[in-house]
Specification:
Chains A, B: Its cofactor is FAD. The structure is a homodimer of 474-residue chains. In chain A, 37% of the residues lie in helices and 19% in strands. Chain A is of the alpha+beta class.
Chain lengths: 474, 474
């Protein structure tokens, strides 16, 4: 065991604390092996300032979670709840001397076909829930890019969305009920299994998006939809990204595509380096649009093709064949295959009024040109969501510094354009200052008071969301 | 002015209070004329125990609302916020000595076509918002039965839904941002105009469904969707309501109809008394299903017809003609035309697991037979929502008593079947005990603490939702 920040004195009490905690939990639940703890220090934000936890607890039952929180409350030890650790904003980065409480093993999935609902553990992987629903002819829509490895608990904590958000909404729209362990170790059940109800304040809605700061989710009841049909695909190429955004907006005003994605030229260039698809030198952006509307898909696709042409698309492909559609869509995933392993990335996450997206992307390109930094951008234009991805060489400190510099400038631009600095990845540790700067004072004060009500000692995920962590309070 | 509950002594201070309040507000805003006050004592729940307010304030601006709440906080006078007064559960029933704060005049509607959003005052009528959206080729989905007269503020306060809820959700799904005046008269802005964001705790989600107990809404930003196509219609008649529910469930498992409604035989008989449609003596229930899926509607309708036939429908009509569809759907509205003026109604609002709806309706029929009380039932089966309407003769006290007796029994049945006693009309004053009895202790305690945080003196709509009113606290 290694607690780097411990002095000799506190190391003694640290050992005692870990022993006390271990005595409260089944064998093997408390992990202090340095190599394993190391894995849990970081999430995907790879924060260099990540702390070293007192211990990692891999809960196997809700009772384990309760025991950890009772212990943590008694000793006022912070707790960082953790699902799959796929936060890119430091939502589960470890805190020195805290307990990292992993719920990854609480991953059971039970689909109730009649009720069109599923009861799942917070550690269940998003794609596993989708697959379990599909096996019953049903559909669990929330589909973040990280669906293959992110957890439903994390999705609930950050209200995750994805490319299908305009038609299908985000995680919030599918959460019917939650079981949550509060800071004092007590369990509360909020919402329920009913498809709809209005029976008091929406506590479930308050926990969705609360990023582990109000309680630790131990069970999620989600609603499921009828399975959609296999998607038909449109890919439309534009010289000017402003025209591409205009086409996307025209589509969004007429219908709800099952997915609507825009990629800019820098992103296409990265994809082209793998796929050798012969990217036209004039291409500025591509719009991918899909329809899963069954017998209505053909007409939706025809309308989307027409709107793209009207808005100056230079080339438009469409297909009702699923395999062909996947080939046409390959650049969407190829980008990450190229980047992974070759460089580090800051994956940004903003929301803007849809009409401001074009101007914002122009600014992204100007900043990239000025700084020499590679920035490639995905957008879900109907939702106003835009993800500039700033790459850098992790071995080159100057490069990392420039990347974070670009991010800082973008954050200012977003605020100036009336946008929000977190769209669907959450606030985490990274964006607390940025969010606090934009949110109204009254709203921030109310959020702090709600936090204090749920977690008077401030032990729950103290670095995340809006709230001052230990030592930061005046 | 008449304050029925005043003694001579307090009448003096009452007069002073009203004078002080009037001095704070523009002329004509404070109403004390007994005839007009009388109109504001009751909402559609027609609670015989409705109080007499100190005064009615018809706010014309947000400033008026702030002034009222500052005054009310200073004097610890309860405030009952009121939109259109169409609550059937006493959500805006007046309280003795309180201020009834009407926001009906805050009814401006501004549609932003580009942003696919509208900014509306809480007093705007639901149908007016829908019409303003339609004028821009857009769609505001929340569509309660009372859409022609209920207010958006009330819809937000109760998270209203309607027959289109399975496809389009409820009011909550369309609220992007709110301006709210808190109990102390301060203004807070929560959420925003962004189609999606995750920037802190969802305070907007907490105000939705809070029934005026946390603050007074003065502005609502709602998202709008592309306009759907004109609906195609299916009407399928069944001998047995259980078969009708099974057909509806089969439909909901395969697709999302734009509306899905079930009416039972007693409801059809009432409609038939007006429409003389030659109701078959064997008919036990009808399922109305609609598709607004444009080019996909024909296939959706065909599937729905097939599923109804598979589940034993004795007659199935379908039409792609809007006017014919409206004629086929006439029984849905005819019921209310017959009942209004002829009798009083207790319109109940429950949510059940969809699989339990058939059993519940059988119990409704048994209770009606046992008590001799007329009960007719509408359901939105895909959402689990069911509305038994218990009629009675308001002049006959025994009849009213029996109606409320039936309601009490039904409430118990709902709880036993794992349902919720408020689906989409809210809790109001009428259902507080029933809800408190069903909700978990932990959840109720958390709600009370949030209420105390927002409204420490308990002045906001003290008879509504979960919270003990003045004099009820131990």
């Amino acid at each position: 065991m290694s607690i780097e920040t411990s002095t000799d004195d506190s190391a003694g009490s640290t050992t005692e604390l870990v022993r006390e905690l271990s005595d409260l939990l089944p064998g093997g639940t408390v992990v202090t092996d340095a190599d394993i703890v190391e894995v849990y220090r970081q999430d995907w934000s790879m924060d260099p300032a990540a702390g070293t936890p007192l211990a990692v607890v891999r809960a196997r039952t809700e009772d384990d979670v309760c025991a950890v929180l009772r212990f943590a409350s008694r000793h006022r030890i912070p707790v960082v709840p953790r699902g799959a650790g796929s936060s890119v904003v430091g939502g589960s980065t470890a805190v020195d001397g805290a307990i990292t409480l992993s719920v990854e093993l609480l991953d059971d999935i039970r689909v109730d076909r009649d009720a069109m609902a599923a009861v799942v553990g917070p550690g269940a992987v998003n794609a596993a829930v989708s697959a379990a629903a599909a096996a019953e002819g049903l559909f669990y829509p929330p589909d973040p890019t990280s669906s293959d490895f992110c957890s439903v608990g994390g999705n609930v904590a950050t209200n995750s969305g994805g490319a299908n958000g305009y038609k299908y909404g985000s995680t919030r729209d599918y959460v019917l009920g939650l079981r949550v362990v509060l800071a004092d170790g007590s369990v509360v059940e909020v919402g329920g299994a009913a498809p709809k109800s209005s029976t008091g304040l929406s506590l479930a809605g308050l926990f969705v998006g609360s990023e582990g700061t109000l309680g630790v989710i131990t069970r999620v009841t989600v609603r499921l939809l009828p399975a959609p049909s296999a998607p038909h695909t449109v890919a439309a190429f534009f010289t000017d990204h402003n025209a591409a955004f205009a086409a996307a907006a025209a589509i969004a005003h007429r219908l709800r595509p099952s997915e609507l994605v825009l990629m800019d030229r820098p992103a296409l260039e990265v994809a082209d380096s793998l796929l050798q698809m012969g990217l036209d030198s004039e291409t500025g952006a591509v719009v991918y649009a899909y329809s899963d509307a069954g017998a209505g898909a053909k007409a939706e696709i025809a309308l989307m093709v027409e709107l793209c042409r009207e808005h100056g698309a230079t080339e438009v492909f469409d297909t009702d064949d699923r395999t062909q559609g996947e080939m046409v869509s390959r650049p969407r995933t190829a980008v990450f295959e190229v980047l992974e392993g070759h460089c580090a990335m800051v994956v940004e996450d903003y929301v803007l009024p849809p009409a401001a997206l074009g101007e914002f992307l122009s600014t992204v390109h100007e900043l990239a040109a000025q700084t020499g930094q590679q920035v490639l951008t995905y957008a879900y234009p109907a939702d106003g969501v835009i993800h500039p991805i700033i790459t850098f060489d992790p071995a080159d400190e100057g490069s990392a510094g420039r990347a974070f510099g670009v991010r800082g400038r973008l954050t200012e631009v977003v605020a100036a354009l009336g946008g929000a600095v977190a769209g669907e990845y959450g606030v985490g540790a990274d964006k607390r200052q940025a969010v606090a700067g934009v949110a109204g004072e009254g709203a921030v004060a109310l959020q702090r008071r709600i936090k204090d009500l749920f977690d008077p000692d401030g032990i729950l995920n103290p670095r995340a969301l809006l709230f001052p962590g230990p030592g930061e309070r005046s």
